[in-house]
Design goal:
2 copies of one chain form a homodimer.
Chain A: E1 7-12, E2 18-23, E3 47-51, E4 56-60, E5 96-100, E6 125-127, E7 131-136, H1 150-168, E8 175-182, E9 195-200, H2 205-221, H3 225-236, E10 240-243, E11 247-250, E12 259-265, H4 277-295, E13 311-316, E14 333-338, E15 340-342, E16 345-346, H5 351-356, E17 360-361, H6 365-375
Helix pairs in contact in A: 1-4, 4-6
């Protein structure tokens, strides 16, 4: 695949929020289309509260109780604007478009919006910072990411990399997290397919735990933890589900979820913005393959049972320092997982997981790897690649 | 309430599992009633797998895929045995009864049940240990814990304390965790009300994080972290929902869940087994009040909307050393929370929580405290107590 050019343009929504179009052809003029909605100025903020018992920050975003909840299809805010049906996207069509979330979990708040902590010694709170963005990758309301062409998926990769670099450079951002929730079983409140980006003002606990584990491993062995884990999984082989020239995907030996994949570039980089062209090109194809395998794990909707496999797709990136430099010891990777454990049955986070953060998995990772491999699109369908499927 | 005597007797189920009856009257003979089911010997085990990226253990219990799932009421395994309807409880009735879970997440496995790790450098696995128990507290299939009499709740407290002491003394147990999942929204697979006890062979991540935070706080301030947190919340006052002579309940300032309570004894103890009689007596009454307040947070089933408030009730106890001694720096407390954020709407653990372990809460803790206080049973209904409800 040749290096493709993506055309980026920036506009503003009626309430002042930023919108960034990533177009596959030049001069679309989309960013210049005015948002005709009579929106009040965007002034939502959230706050961070400190939990001393767990030494963690929690975001409090009370305004989200009133967010848009499963709107009817003819009021979808993620469709492009069509005639007088005004949406979050003023343009009449789009390839990939990213904009600030109207109901953000993380957004700067004025200091005077904090509760008065004068008489409240338990209240360690600070205004939030950071930013939440929505990523739309198809104007087709009923499509899925797995329906995208490789070219469109490649444009999404470019958008992820762009947002990672731009948001990571902000002084109030410690970690940039592109992700997608798919399926009402995991609480999706808008049915139009979309991803999200959270730019956290703190290092999220999972990333902090990995960073600490990597620090200990380096001190004990002199090696990078992520390199060790990837090398060990490749040497073992039996949980590898797909491997190309630049990426490898495996079910982790200690998977927490019924079907869970970690996808690593073979050449370690800290963030999506650090991937080279060849890595980005292959990623677009590999990611589509993995999503299609997930769709194939269970009987499909037209076979009369469940809705499509719900999943969470979670990019793990290096935390960034105050100067915007990512931690070079951290390895970019994707965690892709579903909470469906069998047709009609979900893995719930109940007493052990939600109460104690101790995971119980009912599906052996080796069996999960077998099933994912079997559900992958046939190699023959991807003639340009010498992918080995074990 | 005078000190009540509980009569304890131990039996065996047909497959060798232990069953312990806690009766409110002597000489029931329940433990001698034979289990007439033709069960094969109990041989289920699980394994623990180590995740190097997070420095955590995950339990793999593949046999649980085939556990009993929402059986019809006339096949309920937690009803007492009635005539030829044989259940997990051989006796014809019970007050409180605890037995080993037939489909345990944690159970010793023979070493040869482990996958061959010879060629698999990624596979750090060990046989599980520990134990999972089921706690039945009413033979009424359609009741809830909140329907129990104070006397019955007091018997449950005795059973929790008994199991904590006995399981904590086992060399393969590092933490004893009594909990209850209520509601199909959180994945309950048996509708008969019941609690559970997990005796973990490792310190669960949430307890480990609290222990580490307490260590740092002691080093920095010389004080116990839990004492500081409870004192700060009592001084602030505005998130206290109930306070008696021996216990205090508050919504934490950094609550993760829409409605969440932490209940602490005013005199710090490491485990339920260390509570004195007065603490146990008041706990039984306070706990019922809190559960009833949770039931009152949302319109009830007969008002035509949702099923009763789903909740997770999670006892946080001190980890125990190899000699069975609990960590005296850790403070016993209960975390009680619901994932319902509004009628018909749940708080889902999606991208931020499940992917990054970063919690977003949509309900201000101060508002949650107001609503819980308003839903508490009236003080007048508890004339024996001088509880102050702020």
């Amino acid at each position: 695949m040749r290096t493709r050019q993506v055309f980026r343009s920036v506009g503003r929504l009626a309430d002042g929020r930023e919108i960034v179009y990533f177009d596959e052809s030049p001069d679309t003029g989309r960013a210049e289309v005015a948002d005709r909605r009579p929106l009040p100025p965007f002034s939502t903020g959230s706050q961070l509260r400190y939990d001393p018992l767990l030494d963690e920050w929690v975001a409090l975003a009370a305004h989200r109780q009133h967010r848009t909840f499963l709107p009817p299809p003819d009021e979808c805010p993620l469709d492009p604007t069509r005639g007088e049906r005004l949406s979050e996207i003023p343009a009449g069509d789009y390839d990939v478009v990213v904009f600030e979330n109207r109901f953000p979990s993380l957004a700067p708040a004025p200091a005077d919006a904090l509760p008065d902590a004068g008489g409240d010694p338990a209240l360690a709170a600070r205004p939030s910072a950071g930013r939440c963005e929505v990523v739309c990758f198809t104007s087709d309301h009923s499509a899925s990411f797995s329906d995208l062409s490789p070219e469109r998926a490649r444009t999404v990769v470019e958008a992820w990399a762009d947002r990672t670099a731009e948001l990571g450079a902000r002084p109030d951002v410690a970690h940039v997290y592109p992700f997608e929730n798919r399926g009402i079983e995991i609480g999706v409140t808008l049915q139009h397919p979309h991803g999200q980006i959270y730019a956290y003002p703190f290092v999220p606990p999972r990333i902090a735990a990995m960073r600490e584990a990597a620090r200990k491993h380096r001190a004990a062995t002199g090696a990078n933890l992520f390199d060790t884990v990837v090398a060990d999984e490749r040497r073992a082989g039996r949980r590898i589900v797909a491997e190309g020239e630049h990426w490898t995907a495996f079910v982790p030996a200690a998977a927490r979820w019924p079907y869970e994949i970690r996808l690593f570039p073979l050449r370690r980089v800290p963030t999506l913005a650090d991937l080279d062209e060849a890595q980005r090109d292959e990623l677009a194809r590999d990611y589509l393959d993995l999503l299609r395998a997930f769709d194939g794990l269970f009987p499909q909707p037209d076979e009369g049972t469940d809705p499509p496999t719900p999943y969470i797709s979670a990019w793990h990136q290096a935390p960034v320092g105050a100067d915007g430099t990512p931690d070079s010891e951290f390895a970019l990777h994707l965690q892709l997982f579903t909470l469906r454990r069998a047709p009609g049955k979900l893995k719930y986070l109940a007493g052990s997981e939600s109460g104690m953060a101790a995971w119980i998995n009912d599906v052996a990772p080796e069996d999960a790897a077998d099933r994912i491999r079997a559900a992958l699109p046939a190699v023959a369908a991807r003639p340009t690649e010498n992918k080995e499927q074990r």
